[in-house]
Amino acid sequence: MQASFSHSFHSKLFLLLILSCFVATIGASKKEVSAMYVFGDSTVDPGNNNFIDSAFRSNFPPYGRDFVNQVPTGRFTNGKLGTDFIASYLGLKDLLPPYLDPNLSDKEIITGVSFASAGSGFDPLTPTLGNVISIPKQLEHFKEYKQRLEGMLGEGKTEYHMNNAFFFISAGTNDYVINYFSVPIRRNYTPLTYGQFLLQHVKDFIQNLWKEGARKIALVGLPPMGCLPIVITLNSHNVFFKRGCVDKYSAVARHYNMMLQHELFLMQLNFSNVPLGAKISYIDIYEPLNNMIQWHENFGFDEVDHGCCGSGYIETTFMCNGFSFVCSDPSKFVFWDSIHPTEKAYFHLFMVARPNIDALINA
Question: Which residue spans adopt a coiled-coil conformation according to this UniProt entry (predicted)?
Answer without folding.
Answer: none
